[in-house]
Automatic annotation (TrEMBL):
Lineage summary: Eukaryota, Metazoa, Ecdysozoa, Arthropoda, Hexapoda
Protein name stated in the entry: Trichohyalin isoform X1
Keyword list, A-Z: Coiled coil
Species name: Diaphorina citri
Coiled-coil region list: 224-293, 326-418
Length: 600
């Protein structure tokens, strides 16, 4: 490696890399620092300039922490405090950006001058030292500007601390106000609860007393109502007995009317049955004709299909068979007409038989009616005799009831006199009981008032002590909570910063290795996949060719076998049709009305 600049020959350098910045720095053994710029040139770093960089990092960290505090406090503070803090942060960031721009201009001028001097060659080595001195003088002037910047930064920190302390003071005062308001509301709420509780207890006791009085009055009213109702019932019973007279309605001609109605119903039902039987017979004949038509159509369709599917050589024989069948159809049609005529004759004979049966039934019904009339006449005579006996018994009962009524009236008068005496005695006892209860109630009220006053004083003392106790516990708990929260926050921040540094270094080291490993794995498996796809494609092509050959061989064999079996199948079909025809002819000889349900 050839060194560009003379100071690289004089000093042995050590390269220090920062993970956060893109620059690389060189540290001399004496302690001087040099930095590599974006142009690839090294420049010496002044110690004051290095301090400014560290100060910038501190400002950045403080600003980020300050923003975090503002965010955390904004949930509890008011909107005014957050606005003040935002204004302070904006001013602080503007000043920091101005300082950063000024330092960048200084660095660029310094680097540009050094690059011009180094590029002139080895002939100007002597003049370089003199020019470096002039550059150092300029750096001294720039140091004064940096000191002014430090003063500005210190003023910014003072303003930031003042604003932060003011925000904390406002938060503290507002929290205290909120606590006072809460305590006052708690006191008012407790007093209201006490008033409500004792008012409800007093109201319940008064309601119980009123209910007891109302129940007593209702019981007395019920007793009086019962007595009045009994008196009224006795009066009504006496009046009814005087007014009522024996009234017996004789029921006659009921059985005769019932028989006439039943006869009319039977006649109408018989007529309906006869009409229904006629309609049923007509429906049966229609169904038979429809079934014949359906079976003929099915047979014709099957014959047509078989003729179309048979070879042309056999179609001539099929046409002859069709002609023969047409002749058979005509004969079967004539037979069907004969069957219909025979069915009509049978229906007429059935009607005549049915009329004879109905006449016999009418004669039997008339005989039964005569018997019923005779039985009813005998029963009416027996009922008249029984009614006469009942009239005599009722007269005797009336006499006995009148004697009992006289005895009851005497007893009622005696009970009325006794009830008046009982009512007067009951009123006296009620008055005594009411006065006794009133005296006891007054005594119990006085005792309870004394107990309530004592209990009220005790509860007031207890509430004051509990309020003071809760207030002290809340204050101590809040302080402990704040201390624990602040300690956890600092500890978490330290741990997070260390974890962040470790994580960044680990990611940078692992990222290159992972990318390289993934690339190699992709290359390896892509080549394998490509070879496997080629191999599979060849196998599939070979299998498809063999499958086509096998399919062609099987198809030729199947067609040949079907062609060889065709005359045998036609012979079997002819024999089958003959057998079916013979079977039908035999069945028709036995049953002329037979119609095949299924035709194959």
């Amino acid at each position: 490696m050839t060194n560009k600049y003379p100071f690289d020959k004089q000093y042995e350098a050590v390269l220090i890399k920062n993970n956060s910045d893109s620059k690389s720095r060189i540290k001399h053994s004496n302690g001087t620092h040099m930095e590599k710029n974006n142009l690839g040139l090294y420049q010496p770093i002044h110690p004051e300039q290095r301090e400014t960089e560290t100060y910038k990092m501190q400002i950045q960290n403080s600003s980020s922490l300050y923003d975090h505090k503002i965010v955390s406090s904004s949930h509890n503070d008011n909107s005014r405090i957050s606005d003040d803090l935002d204004d302070v942060c904006i001013k602080h960031k503007e000043q920091y950006s101005q300082v950063h721009k000024h330092e960048e201009t200084i660095d660029n001028t310094f680097v540009y001058e050094i690059d011009l001097k180094y590029n002139q060659g080895n002939e100007q080595d002597k003049n370089w030292m003199e020019e470096a001195k002039s550059i150092l003088i300029k750096m001294g002037e720039n140091i004064k500007i940096i000191n002014d910047v430090d003063k500005r930064n210190s003023d910014i920190e003072k303003e930031r601390l003042a604003s932060w302390s003011l925000a904390k003071w406002k938060c503290f005062t507002e929290n205290n106000k909120n606590k006072r308001h809460k305590l006052e509301k708690m006191k008012v709420h407790r007093e209201q609860n006490l008033m409500r509780r004792y008012f409800y207890e007093w109201k319940q006791k008064t309601n119980i007393i009123i209910k007891e009085k109302n129940e007593r009055a209702e019981k007395i009213d019920m007793f009086l109502d019962v007595l009045r109702s009994r008196q009224e019932e006795l009066k009504e019973n006496l009046e009814k007995k005087r007014k009522t007279k024996p009234a017996y309605d004789l029921q006659r001609n009921e059985f005769k009317n019932r028989l006439n109605i039943q006869k009319d119903i039977i006649k109408s039902q018989k007529q309906k049955l006869a009409e229904a039987e006629e309609e049923i017979q007509k429906m049966k004949i229609r169904q038979i004709l429809e079934q014949n038509k359906i079976s003929r159509n099915v047979v014709e369709e099957n014959v047509r299909e078989t003729i179309q599917n048979i070879d042309p050589k056999l179609k001539v024989a099929a046409n002859q068979i069709i002609k023969f069948k047409n002749d058979e159809k005509r004969e079967s049609h004539e037979k069907a007409k004969k069957l219909v005529e025979s069915m009509e004759q049978r229906a007429k004979e059935r009607k005549l038989k049915w009329q004879e049966i109905q006449e016999r039934k009418k004669q039997k019904a008339e005989a039964k009616v005569k018997l019923l009339e005779e039985q009813e006449a005998a029963r009416l005579q027996e009922e008249e005799e029984k009614k006469k006996k009942r009239i005599i018994e009722l007269k005797e009962k009336r006499r006995v009831e009148q004697e009992n009524a006289r005895k009851k009236e005497n007893e009622r008068r005696r009970l009325n006199s006794l009830s008046v005496i009982a009512e007067n005695f009951h009123k006296k006892k009620l008055k005594q009981r009411a006065l006794r209860g009133f005296r006891e109630n007054l005594e119990s009220c006085l005792i309870k008032m004394e107990l309530a006053d004592k209990f009220y004083i005790y509860q007031l003392k207890r509430k004051c002590f509990m309020a003071w106790k809760f207030y002290t516990e809340e204050i101590t708990a809040e302080k402990e909570h704040l201390a624990a929260h602040f300690y956890n926050y600092i500890l978490k921040r330290k741990v997070f910063d260390t974890f962040k540094e470790i994580y960044n270094t680990r990611i940078l080291n692992l990222q290159v290795a992972i990318d390289f490993r993934d690339l190699k794995i992709q290359e390896k498996y892509f080549s394998k996949w490509k070879a496997f796809c080629r191999w599979q494609r060849r196998i599939v092509q070979h299998q498809m060719k063999e499958a086509d050959k096998y399919y062609c061989r099987r198809l030729l064999r199947h067609c040949f076998l079907r062609w060889r079996e065709l005359p045998q199948i036609a012979f079997y079909e002819r024999e089958k049709d003959k057998r079916i025809r013979e079977w039908r002819d035999k069945v028709k000889e036995v049953l002329p009305d037979f119609v095949p349900f299924e035709v194959e």
